[in-house]
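fwd from M.: "can u put these together and see what the complex looks like"

so here's what she sent:
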Amino acid sequence: MNLVLVGINHRTAPVEVREIMNIHETRQAAALSNLVGREGILEALILSTCNRVEVAICARDEVEADPILRSFLSEYHHYDVKAHERYLYWHRQEDVVRHLFRVASSLDSMILGEPQVLGQMKQAFATAKRVGALNGTLHEVVNQALAVARRVRRETAIGATAISVSYAAVELARKIFGNLEGKTIFVIGAGKMSELAAKHLMRSGASAILVSNRTYDRAVEMAAAFHGTAIHYEELFDYMNKADVVISSTGAPHFVVTREKAEQLLAARKNRPIFFVDIAVPRDIDPAVNELDNAYVYDIDDLDQVVDANKKQRQREAVWAEQIVNQELQKMQHRLASRDVVPTIVALEERLNCIRESETERFRGRLNNLSPEQRETVDALTRGILNKILHGPITELKSGAGQPEQGALVHLIRRIFGVGE
Amino acid sequence: MHPALLWTALAFYGLGIALTLPSVIRRRPTLSPASLGALGFGLLAHGAGLAIKAVEIHRLPVADVRGALSVFSFLATTAFFLIYLRYKITSLGIFMLPLAFVLTLISAVNNGALPASPEFRGRWLIVHIGCILIGYVGFFITFIAALMYLFQERELKSKRPRAFYYRLPSLEICDELYLRSLIIGLPFLTLGIVMGFIGASREWKGPWELDPKILGALVTWLIYLILFSTRMSGSWRGRRSAYLAVLGFATMMVTFLGISFLSGQHGYFPKIGPTP
């Protein structure tokens, strides 16, 4: 096993350098073919996103891969990579495995737990497989990296919390209403931000949308985009009691919804909960409305606060995710190490079987007058002895896989049984 | 009740609760098969124990307080199972299961044979206790749902998401669970109390209307009636309604456990201490 990875990412290099090093999706297949066409390179993987460029290879054991990778990158980019040496990081052997596991699980991402990188890794894996650049150890490692990432998604909540303000609004609406199906959104003051929040809410299953704006035409325009209903600004409160989520971003200099108004709304709604998202500055909703039962008011700072808490939550989840990565890394090491003992086991079995067959052949003359059943018995007997002898060394080889003294053990067993290296 | 089966059930319940903890702490969307399996085995052992006992005495083993506790916790754990299958609320386990466990434990520790007093013979009594127990399980769930609602509501109002925000279900789910369990619990409690009145008027002598337990049950019933009507009309909803549910449950516990010490006709509790 000779794994090497070279890469740059958002932490090690500024965007100008990442731009230069980028290997565009459409050119990856050619780049991979170029790489595996080089002497000593068995497998290759290229992952290139806006935040990182990673080139991983598996080379023949005796090959020194660094110069090959350097010259590949230099030739590919028509640019001497030595100039950017300080931005590069290099990983070898288990570190390559760990790095790929962490990248796929989004533990190395700029935004912890973001889901895109897993898709990008899948894409890179598919491309490399298509051009035949993955067929052995690296294939197994990348395949496992994808499995580890899926396990991290499944067993931790690293990607479960909202980390943008507009998604935080959706998350809060879900904490109040559960399913958003059948719920009505009321957007007051059509703006970029309220439009984004409304879009997320509608995508999460909300059923209807009302839009109101001081300039009625703008309300009609936005309502049309969402297949909603435009409401005249003067009739605001005639419709507000129908709304479960109110997104407000008017330019009004005073509160649009006062405590008294909110009390009337709640009474009209028979106390069904109502959620105000106030993204206007100055604020549209009197903060005192939050003191009323079944009314929830979040202004822009409150949403930021939720986002901050969610980010911390992701960091906490990342600790669990790192544990999963470590566990999986150990398993992988063991698997890779036992890949190394497999040839020895096969050679051992062949060697002993060879002895068995030649010895049976030698005694064929004396065994001639045996009945077919008896001959079968002799066959089973010799095979049984062989398996009993093999059992010990094979168990030792398998359990010793990955241990430091494994090399010596393989050597010793090969010598004892006269199996050539 | 067979002690071995009850202790087996307890051991499985304990294991189930222990295995539920990491799922809640780690915010997994579902409980592990191991914890569900453990709870399932616990229920099997518990149910088998109750069934054997029922066959032995030819009626439901609810006529003494240990039996009643045991049946209650069996029903509550079954209810948890069903609710989990429907709503997949992992955090519910943390709220519901420990109490069910403690009640089973009390029932297991006091496992001496109790001579059933003549009052406990009537068939009406089994129906009376059975209905009230089902009503109690319903209100137990109402209480838990109200509690979860209150915790989640506080987090949302405070605008500072902490542990509960991430682990508890939405307010709407809490509310739905709360209302449904109320709708199931109330008719059973009503029926149970009516059965009690009929039976008592026929068999008990003296001023049985003043029995503290009966008064307690009436107060409980009244609270739940108010809860139900205000919630249905929409005049009380959310936090206030949830507080009333907590009060209702407290009254119920006092009636179920506390007043039994004072009650003349319902006074089987004094015998619960260490059996001679």
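replying to her w this: The interface with chain A takes residues 26-28, 152, 156-157, 159-162, 165-166, 169-173, 176, 233-240 of chain B (CB under 8 Å).
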